[in-house]
Amino acid sequence: MQILYLQPICRRYLPRSNYLLTSVLHAFRCRWQMFLCFSTL
């Protein structure tokens, strides 16, 4: 019963959290590449 109630909420909030997660991962990846570039210098 609770799962059926939670499904619409998940569908409503999933794109926003997914966008947030991808942006955080992108920023982390950029920082990691910068760190690798500076460590090889």
Report on the structure:
By secondary structure, the protein is mainly α. It contains one helix and no strands. It has one helix at residues 2-40.
Give a topology summary.
Layout lengths: L1 H39 L1
Percent helix: over 70%
Can you tell me the overall shape?
rod-shaped
Radius of gyration based on Cα positions: 17 Å
Strand content: under 5%
What does the largest sheet look like? Answer: none
Instruction: Name the structural class.
Output: mainly alpha
- Which stretches are poorly predicted, pLDDT < 50 over at least 5 residues? none
- Round the mean pLDDT to the nearest integer and report it: 80
**DSSP, total strands:** 0
> What is the count of helical runs?
1
Order of helices and strands: H
N/C terminus separation = 58 Å
Question: What descriptors fit this protein?
Answer:
mainly alpha, 41 residues, single chain
